[in-house]
């Protein structure tokens, strides 16, 4: 593990990289003793700093939900990050591509809780019972460090979360089979990716259950009203200036976002 002073220095470096759009050296190289517990502590310091600056925590994102991504990161489970209100973007927005370093988009479902969820031992049915509605979403991911990255780099870097777009049709979780929500992602009119939500741990609500159980281990829980990104069911698609994105979720509607 690293010291508290090193954790704070790492968080400061990541925040500066985000502000200046200039990636830093991987924390795993700067701090040889960096462990996963340190990485989550750095992430929390970053979240606290954003709140102190006026942002409001609105939920969490879950990453590395596919087996392929876990193997690539040498992990056996997902990771998670925080979401603040200034990270949430409306459907149809036009974003400045130079706000990010190397932005990419992922197709996801967002769960909005109507009741608190306390782990441990949460399961899919617990999540569905507590969920008020599910809505299509796109996540903008970005790296604030150089690559290649260790899993500790990704976690400390807020699990690569940069922004999210919500839109389409709001549905109650029992009104559709959430496992079989499918989507295509088109970039400038060309379909680049497609997938089905069952690719997220067999059921996207399984990711939410995992997160609730993970937070219980550190004395936290999921709260009513929180917005929870359950994990991508497509590969990430790179975006740049002069890009128009259209994600079609079939019966659940579509999301559009562009980059200038």
What is the alpha-carbon Rg in Å? 17 Å
N- to C-terminal distance: 42 Å
Approximate helicity band = 25-40%
Secondary structural class: alpha+beta
Question: Mind describing the biggest β-sheet?
Answer: 8 strands, mixed
Please, what is the average pLDDT?
95
Q: What's the count of strands? A: 13
Spans with pLDDT under 50 lasting ≥5 residues?
A: none
Shape: globular
Order of helices and strands: HHHEHEEEEHEHEEEHEEEE
Beta fraction of the residues? 25-35%
How many helices does DSSP assign? 7
Fold blueprint:
Blueprint: H1 4-20, H2 27-30, H3 36-52, E1 57-63, H4 67-72, E2 79-84, E3 88-90, E4 94-95, E5 104-113, H5 124-130, E6 131-141, H6 151-156, E7 161-166, E8 182-187, E9 190-196, H7 204-216, E10 227-229, E11 237-238, E12 243-248, E13 254-259
Parallel strand pairs: 1-10, 3-7, 4-13
Antiparallel strand pairs: 1-2, 5-6, 5-10, 5-11, 6-7, 8-9, 8-12, 12-13
Helix pairs in contact: 1-3, 5-7
InterPro entries: Fumarylacetoacetase-like_C, Fumarylacetoacetase_C_sf, Hydratase-Decarb/MhpD_sf
Domain Fumarylacetoacetase-like C-terminal: 68-254
Keywords: Lyase
What does this structure look like?
The chain has 260 residues and is an alpha+beta fold. Helices cover 27% and strands 29% of the residues. It is built from seven helices and 13 strands. The protein has helices at residues 4-20, 27-30, 36-52, 67-72, 124-130, 151-156, 204-216, and strands at residues 57-63, 79-84, 88-90, 94-95, 104-113, 131-141, 161-166, 182-187, 190-196, 227-229, 237-238, 243-248, 254-259. The strands form two sheets. Strands 1, 2, 3, 5, 6, 7, 10 and 11 form an eight-stranded mixed β-sheet that branches. A hairpin with a 2-residue loop joins strand 8 (182-187) and strand 9 (190-196). Helix 1 (4-20) crosses helix 3 and helix 5 crosses helix 7. The termini are far apart. The model has no long low-confidence stretch (mean pLDDT 95).
